[in-house]
Amino acid sequence: MTDLAGPRDHAPVPEYPTAGPSCAVPPVDGGAPPGCPARVALSGLGYQQTPSQLYRALRSEHGPVAPVLLDGDVPAWLVLGYAEVAHVTSHDELFARDSRRWNQWASIPADWPLLPYVGYQPSVLFTEGAEHQRRAGVITEALEAVDQFELSEGCRRIAHRLIDSFAGGGRAELMSLYAHALPMRAALLMCGMPMDGADTEDLVQDLRISLDAHEGDDPVAAYARVGERLHRLVEEKRAVPAPDVVSRMAAHPAGLTDDELVQDLISVIAAAQQPTANWIGNALRLLLTDDRFALNVSGGRLSVGQALNEVLWLDTPTQNFIGRWAVRDTRLGGRQIRAGDCVVLGLAAANTDPQIWPEGHVGAENSAHMSFSNGEHRCPYPAPLLADVIARTSVETLLERLPDTVLAVEPAELTWRPSIWMRGLTSLPVRFTPIVR
Ligand code: HEM
Questions:
Q1: How far apart are the CA of 378 and the centre of ligand 1, in A?
Q2: What are the CA-CA distances from residue 281 to residues 173, 175, 177 (Å)?
Q3: Using 50, 70 and 90 to split pLDDT, how confident is the model at 298?
Q4: How many alpha carbons lie under 13 Å from residue 61 in its C-beta half-sphere?
Q5: Does residue 130 have a pLDDT over 90?
């Protein structure tokens, strides 16, 4: 386990020299030092806005690194510049992933809403150095062996079943019935669960509640059932291996324990589910609302690919990611960062940074966006490719089956979830000619 008690050995790294306000770290009470802009409350930001406008305004007021307040007025930094996000994510010796470094733990209450994302868990997400390479290596090798053609066929079968369940009605709410439902089942399929049956449906339901609880749900009980079911899955796959992700992770020479395996499986499924679901939803919204795509929607494979890529640049689901914790005092974007400070990766802001797009142009063929993050902890290869297969197959199959799909509300009536972390629609109501079978 990583020793966080003392200073770490590291090669000297130059401070990152960017222009920007050079305010010292504001006091913990959230006030701003003289001459510096006040901290921005992240929970108060205008989520319904276009991200490029929102982050442009923040950048022009605060520079590439903004002092912000998380829920409960807890101070942190939001990194808005592309070069600064690249710097943070590629210097693990300065900004690392183990949240136990945080200098604010003493003021965090037990019911703090961000605890599920920030509280240390012994999973691949929070490991560092050699231990991270061991854990991430197992995931990468297990995912590398996924046959992308088979995955696409599996997604197509899942898509047809989901569409069958609502195609007769002529109307559907696509976020819950399709965009969220499909990647969850695709992830379980890769893990070697059967495509249907009560066992799979129970796990799908418990994962949904754990990741995205609605009123009346009990996420703690659901999470416990997810852990139990995945423990049994690991036992089953150790006893009878099959060509699936869980069997490959269990058989990997790195020798993960059952607990480590279950932790990392939960990380893989959760990391796959929410961003891919909102990627699909945001791309469907673009295809259904933007005139540039309207003529091509019914047959256009090219336009689906363009929509998916444009979303990663302009409307990424992984809007902001928490985060990294400063290993030692350093400077970033003209700011003084103290050891233990929390740094939020502003991935959406980085993607639309005028420093990289001075003309405001976003290159459709370019994939140098930050939506999959960057550096040691970035979304591990080949997960982005698999996510692309899942998202592309979902969108294409829907448009093939229901080619006259249109929005059932005015575009301006669509609302975004009230979250600064994951950008996704609360609902996507559509109508189409009912399919009578
Ligand atoms: C098949 C689908 C996917 C799988 C299996 C997957 C898997 C993972 C895993 C295992 C991690 C943890 C990496 C680590 O800490 O070392 C991760 C991180 C991440 N993934 Fe993915 N992912 C998927 C789809 C996506 C999509 C669609 C997006 C965004 C559009 C995304 C964005 C990210 C980001 C931003 C991180 C955080 C990286 C960081 O800490 O800097 N992922 N993913």
A1: 7
A2: 11, 6, 11
A3: low
A4: 14
A5: yes
Report, in this order, helix, strand and coil percent for the chain, each rounded to 5.
50, 10, 40
CB-based contacts of 300, cutoff 8 Å, min separation 6: 293
What torsion do the CA atoms of 233, 239, 244, 246 make, to the nearest 10 degrees? 50
- Asked if 293 and 436 count as a contact pair (C-beta separation under 8 A), the reply is no
Region 161-167 average pLDDT: 97
How far from 212 is each of 141, 203, 378, 379, CA to CA, in Å? 29, 14, 23, 21
Give 318's contacts (C-beta < 8 A, 6+ positions apart). 275, 347, 348, 371, 372, 373, 422, 423
CB burial string 182-197: b at 16+ within 10 A, e below = bbbbbbbbbbbbeeee
Report residue 393 as tokens: 């197959």
In the block, tokens 């970035």 appear at: 378
User: Beta-carbon neighbour count of residue 14 at 10 Å?
Assistant: 8
Closest atom, ligand 1, to C-alpha of 267: 10
Burial class (CB in 10 A: 0-12, 13-18, 19+), 160: middle
- In this structure, the residue with its CA closest to atom 1 of ligand 1 is 387
CA pair distance 42, 21, nearest whole angstrom: 19
Task: Give 62-96 as a DSSP string.
Answer: H-SEEEEEEGGGEEEEEE--HHHHHHHHH-TTTEE
Tracing tokens 């819950």 back to the chain, one arrives at 176
User: For 52-72, how does the pLDDT look when each residue is reduced to its tens digit (9 = 90+)?
Assistant: 888 988 999 999 999 999 999
Pocket test for ligand 1, best of 138, 379, 395 (most atoms within 8 A of CB): 379
Q: pLDDT tens for residues 361-401?
A: 666 678 899 999 999 999 999 999 999 999 999 999 999 99
At the second CATH level, the architecture of 40-431 is: Orthogonal Bundle (1.10)
Q: What is the CB < 6 Å shell around ligand 1?
A: 89, 124-125, 136, 139, 267-268, 271-272, 275-276, 279, 312, 316-318, 321, 371-373, 377-380, 383, 386-387, 390
Please give the full DSSP string across 231-268, using - where no structure is assigned: HHHHHHHHHS--SSHHHHHHH-TT---HHHHHHHHHHH
- pLDDT given at position 217: 87
